[in-house]
């Protein structure tokens, strides 16, 4: 009996934390899954797939994108790929993200706290450079609006760089 109580005492911190592990992730739960749709990005339209998958014991949310853009009279066909790793910063206890794409862009984001339900907004924090804003809004359980915007240095207005609607698969 003493051995069982010792084991329970040793396990208690892990068991007690099990229910609260996903709490900081509550605002992002709606993103999980596979989404497919159309998008527009600076004079190009394409079709693609975005996935949000929980990794590392539900401690990291990984977004992967792949969009195919057909050839036009002005340019050849191309594929756009991106990866975003969303995590809780252990020092600040805030949700942050690192974004990477095939065009060598790297953006560090922070989740804006207090977003309305079924929406999330990430804003970059590069001092002196452009500010990027990535927004998600669930229109219904099957449709997600995605908007990527940039605010140039010295400007107070965001400009839409890419936007689209994806559908849950």
Describe the fold and architecture.
This protein has a single domain, classed as Calycin beta-barrel core domain (Lipocalin, Beta Barrel), CATH 2.40.128. It has one helix and ten strands. It has a ten-stranded antiparallel β-barrel. A hairpin with a 6-residue loop joins strand 7 and strand 8. The longest helix is centred in the N-terminal third of the chain and has 17 residues. The termini are far apart.
List the defining traits of the structure above.
Lipocalin; globular; 10-stranded antiparallel β-barrel; mainly beta; 169 residues
Q: What's this, in brief?
A:
The chain has one helix at residues 2-18; strands spanning 33-41, 45-55, 60-69, 78-88, 95-101, 106-111, 119-124, 131-140, 143-151, 159-168. With 169 residues, it is mainly beta. The model is unreliable at 2-21 (pLDDT under 50).
CATH class: Mainly Beta
CATH 4th-level superfamily: Calycin beta-barrel core domain
> Separation of termini?
50 Å
- Share in β-strands: over 45%
Largest sheet: spatial strand order: 1-2-3-4-5-6-7-8-9-10
Cα Rg = 19 Å
Give the rounded overall mean pLDDT. 85
The overall strand count is 10
Oligomer: single chain
- Overall 3D form: globular
Stretches where pLDDT is under 50 for at least 5 consecutive residues are: 2-21
| Biggest sheet features | 10 strands, antiparallel, barrel
What is the helix/strand order? HEEEEEEEEEE
Count of separate DSSP helical elements: 1
Helical residues, percent: 10-25%
* CATH architectural label: Beta Barrel
Into how many domains do the coordinates divide?
Answer: 1
Secondary structural class = mainly beta
Named CATH topology: Lipocalin
């Amino acid at each position: 009996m003493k051995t069982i109580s010792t084991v329970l005492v040793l396990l208690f911190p892990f068991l007690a934390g099990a229910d609260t592990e996903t709490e900081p992730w509550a605002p992002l739960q709606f993103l999980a899954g596979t989404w497919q749709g159309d998008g527009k990005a600076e004079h190009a339209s394409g079709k693609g797939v975005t996935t949000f998958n929980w990794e590392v014991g539900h401690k990291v949310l990984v977004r992967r994108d792949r969009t195919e853009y057909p050839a036009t009279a002005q340019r050849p066909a191309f594929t756009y790929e991106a990866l975003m790793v969303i995590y809780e910063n252990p020092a600040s206890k805030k949700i942050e993200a690192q974004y990477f794409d095939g065009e060598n862009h790297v953006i560090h984001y922070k989740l804006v706290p207090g977003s309305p339900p079924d929406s999330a907004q990430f804003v970059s924090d590069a001092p002196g450079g452009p500010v990027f804003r990535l927004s998600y809004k669930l229109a219904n359980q099957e449709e997600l609006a995605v908007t990527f915007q940039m605010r140039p240095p010295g400007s107070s207005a965001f400009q839409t760089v890419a936007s689209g609607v994806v559908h849950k698969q």
